[in-house]
Recover the amino acids of this structure.
């Protein structure tokens, strides 16, 4: 028996990870595990929790899903203390091995230091070479370990200042949760590319998480987003908000609104579910087509398909039924079974499809392998016409800010015209949402070409943070202002 990664799971962009932290609650570890359950969609390869009991740190890290690895009574019992941080991992930097599983922990000169990181550092290899030349010994291949070494080498007297000193040397996207003997710290990069939000439990217990859905599961209330460039410090004396970095125009990742975040998440722009419905409505206005049914590609295409249906007046139906009991791996005993691929996760609802003109709505097209199989399945079910509408602009560029993206030459939209893509996928028509339509859906009047309101590099190729390890250090808005 061979267990292999499902190639059709890899035809999506994947967020690297989710982070969670809680300070001052007797059930800190259990609540952290619950928070990681709610953030499981952000990373399924590994998970970990570090807690502090007032005397020592405790750590549990494992490969696999939270429910399979961290949720047992014995694991929770091994994580005593009233403060804890947790992490879900989907690797973009470093391989999937236990030593790369976060939160990472180190004993520094001032005591224990645990860190969880969502994002990706674009100058990690450059800094790593510098640190190794100074005698640093790395245990992992994750870029997060670079931050630990920079903090350890800082000559600043206070821990907070040492962290700031370290972060001023890095470039890239990051949301961080840090736990020490006396503090929990949350930090968001100066452009706010990766998300981080603040919540509060009864009694004023503070909680940090990548998304507000982690608060819902533990009964905490959503307070606000951590601002871009903000460092928020929790101690027994209260909460302190610091602004140690240059103030820049925020550029949060726009793909959070399209796919990464759970639909029931709340952001500063509002409900992600409502945003995705507005995306579908914009898509219907921009790219109408005469048809009988609007069908989502489950589950990520569902809210946009609802919006498309409501705006167009074309009935919405569940024309594809998803098998929710298929994980990221499946058994492939023979080559004759392997080609079935997508049918393990999806099956056509033939009674709804036969003889109909169908509009398929999906969030994006990456490699196109899943789209080809889905269209084949819909045609085999007897569809008269198949039109595909995509709830985002064409994905033409790789992400270097914490998203697992194929190399650019593997992105279908980077090497084909829309007409060529339509012929390859096998649809009667293919259309994407415009950039301005996407921005309208998230509450803007359109995209400001001079100062875009979001990071949309995967669509535009305009990278707001220089790619030091990738392009030789081309200057960017962030690096120029940091040097000013």
């Amino acid at each position: 028996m061979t267990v292999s990664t499902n190639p059709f799971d890899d035809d999506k962009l994947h967020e690297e990870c989710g982070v969670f932290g809680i300070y001052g609650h007797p059930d800190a570890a259990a609540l952290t595990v619950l928070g990681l359950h709610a953030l499981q969609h952000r990373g399924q390869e590994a998970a970990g929790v570090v807690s502090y009991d007032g005397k020592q740190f405790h750590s549990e890290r494992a490969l696999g899903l939270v429910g399979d690895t961290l949720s047992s009574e014995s694991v929770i019992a091994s994580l005593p203390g009233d403060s804890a941080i947790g992490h879900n991992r989907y690797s973009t930097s470093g391989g999937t091995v236990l030593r790369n599983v976060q939160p990472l922990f180190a004993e520094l000169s001032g005591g224990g230091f645990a860190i969880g990181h969502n994002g990706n550092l674009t100058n990690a290899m450059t800094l790593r070479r510098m640190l190794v030349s100074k005698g640093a010994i790395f245990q992992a291949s994750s870029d997060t370990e670079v931050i630990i070494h920079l903090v350890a080498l800082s000559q600043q007297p206070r821990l907070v200042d040492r962290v700031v000193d370290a972060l001023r040397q890095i470039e890239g996207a990051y949301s961080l949760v840090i736990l020490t003997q006396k503090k929990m710290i949350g930090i968001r990069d100066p452009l706010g590319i990766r998300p981080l939000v603040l919540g509060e439990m009864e009694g004023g217990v503070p909680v940090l998480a990548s998304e507000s859905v982690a608060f819902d599961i533990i009964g905490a209330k959503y307070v606000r987003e951590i601002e871009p460039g903000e460092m928020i410090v929790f101690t027994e004396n209260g909460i302190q908000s610091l602004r140690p970095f240059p103030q820049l125009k925020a550029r949060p990742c726009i793909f959070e609104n399209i796919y990464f975040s759970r639909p029931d998440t709340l952001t500063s722009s509002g409900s992600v579910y409502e945003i995705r419905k507005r995306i579908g409505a914009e898509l219907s206005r921009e790219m109408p087509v005469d048809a009988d049914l609007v069908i989502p590609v489950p589950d990520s295409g569902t809210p946009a398909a609802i919006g498309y249906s409501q705006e167009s007046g074309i009935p919405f139906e569940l024309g594809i039924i998803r098998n929710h009991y298929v994980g990221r791996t499946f058994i492939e005993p023979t080559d004759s079974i392997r080609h079935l691929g997508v049918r393990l996760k999806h099956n056509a609802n033939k009674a709804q499809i036969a003889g109909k003109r169908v509009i398929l709505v999906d969030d994006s097209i990456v490699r196109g392998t899943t789209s080809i199989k889905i269209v084949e399945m819909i045609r085999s079910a007897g569809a008269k016409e198949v039109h595909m509408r995509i709830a985002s602009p064409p994905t033409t560029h790789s992400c270097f800010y914490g998203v697992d993206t194929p190399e650019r030459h593997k992105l279908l939209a980077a090497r084909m015209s829309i007409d060529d893509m339509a012929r390859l996928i096998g649809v009667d028509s293919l259309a994407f949402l415009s950039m301005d339509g996407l921005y309208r859906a998230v509450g803007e009047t359109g995209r400001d070409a001079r100062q875009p309101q979001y990071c949309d590099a995967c669509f535009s190729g305009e990278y707001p943070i220089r790619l030091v390890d990738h392009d030789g250090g081309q200057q960017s808005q962030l690096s120029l202002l940091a040097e000013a």
